[in-house]
Amino acid sequence: MVQWTSSTWKSKFFTIWSGQALSLIGSRLVQFALVWWLARDADSATVLATAALMAYIPMVFLSPFAGALIDRWNRRTVMLIADSSIALATVVLAVLFATGNVKIPYIYGLMFIRAVGGAFHFPSMQAATTLMVPREQLSRVAGMNQTLRGVAMLIAPMLGALLIEWLPMQGILAIDIITAIFAVIPLLFIRIPEPTPASENKRPPIIKDMLEGFSFSIRWRGMLLLILGLALMNFVVNPAFSLIPMYVKRVLDGQAFVFGTMQTLFAVGFILGGVLLSTWGGFKRRIATALLAVAIMGVSIGTMGLTPQGWIPLAVGAMFLTGLMEPIANGSFMATLQSSVPENMQGRVFSLLGSATQAVVPFGLMVAGPLCDRYGMRIWFIIGGIAYLVVAFGGLASKRVMRLEEEGALLKEQSASLAIDAALEE
């Protein structure tokens, strides 16, 4: 395995990282502009839900396999192909906007290509980071990545709302193309270390690993209930957030600036929630912290569904509270899983969790769009709030869910005992 020297890793890594950071902000900016364009010109919740569906389908089908495939491929090449393909698709769409030939299906196509690229690009960058960065610096880099995500969520909506008023769509798309170039150029000249390739007969069978993780999770009653609860939350909340532009238009009588303000305050809440969790740490029983945050999110999402026509401050406040609670819920859920699942099963269980929670989103989108077009935008937010409250109070009432960490500690002890027995037999 080729590693960078301790004296050169910072200049090389941060050159690549800076290009990727610019590209991320450009992508968020364009995503905001395209979603608002669809909401404004199509005026259909079904169209907006279909656009979100295009972004989820590749994740559902590719995510379970992408990580294993990336371990077999050159990671720099994967990142180059992903970034370049997305930029090329954006160029085509910019030309269509400039010539007046753009159609909604073309936007669907770009979102689909973006999702395919993202399914391979993100894990490639994460896997490459462990080889580019010294082990003792990984936590700091991970913190920088989370900060970058929050900053992108914060500035992209407001900047996008302003640019929509100043530039044509092809001009906004050009920003994404330029930032993608900044991401690609460093990859052309800086060689990323690669792990020593494993022989074919030592590579783990992907399907077998997936089946073992599935069997482990469904036999553990508390874990199965938790996965089902998280899947239900994703089923309702992801479509709800995808429909926010239509919610702004139909319920709040707002324009792009209101949409941008809601997105920005959600990001502010998200950052503050992460800071709160990192300083407070949550309750001793982590799952209780997560479920309490879910209950508060249920109230805030339901409030959005009950907001009277044009009451912008109430909806914006509910959106901020949702953002504040999301990192507390997600971080506490992840800490619960990390402390409960035996280390030798974590990769498979986390992969299963990601697949299960993402797989339900397309079905939610297929239901939410037509339902909101027929009964109004509020209905789905009310359904979402109720679903979150069911998960929260159902989890708090379930002894198996509340005892996840205790049961996990026993499983880890059993795994350690089995490992010792196997070593003694050898």
* Main β sheet profile: none
- Inertia-based shape: globular
Count of alpha/pi helices: 17
Find the CATH superfamily of the largest domain.
Answer: MFS general substrate transporter like domains
Instruction: Report Rg.
Output: 22 Å
Q: Which structural class matches the secondary elements?
A: mainly alpha
Unreliable residue runs: 418-426
In total, the number of domains comes to 2
Average of the residue pLDDT scores: 81
Helix content: over 70%
Describe, in plain words, how this protein is organized in 3D.
This protein has 426 residues and is mostly helical. The chain folds into two domains: 1-193, Growth Hormone, Chain: A, CATH 1.20.1250; 202-426, Up-down Bundle (Growth Hormone, Chain: A), CATH 1.20.1250.20. It has 17 helices and no strands. The longest helix is centred in the first third of the chain and has 34 residues, at 9-42. It is globular. The two termini are 29 Å apart.
